[in-house]
Specification:
Layout: H1 2-15, H2 22-55
Length: about 70
């Protein structure tokens, strides 16, 4: 079974016909777009963690915005 798949891959490489249909091309494109987006998000997270965490020693204090609901207090 693995030998058949290997032979199929080798024959496609020799004939330079990687895709059998338009659906193969579309699924290949969607797969690489998905992988690209995941890698982009990982890179953005790494940039955020490595660059911003080291520089920001003081975190800004949060202040409450809006109207305080007195009815919720005991």
């Amino acid at each position: 079974m693995i030998e058949d798949q290997f032979k199929d891959v080798v024959s496609r490489l020799q004939s330079k016909e990687f895709f059998q249909s338009d659906w193969d091309i579309a699924s290949f494109a969607v797969f690489f777009i998905f992988i690209g987006m995941v890698l982009l998000l990982v890179i953005l997270v790494l940039i955020r963690c490595c660059c911003c965490c080291c520089c920001d020693n003081e975190k800004p204090r949060r202040r409450k915005v809006g109207i305080e609901n007195v009815a919720l207090e005991p």
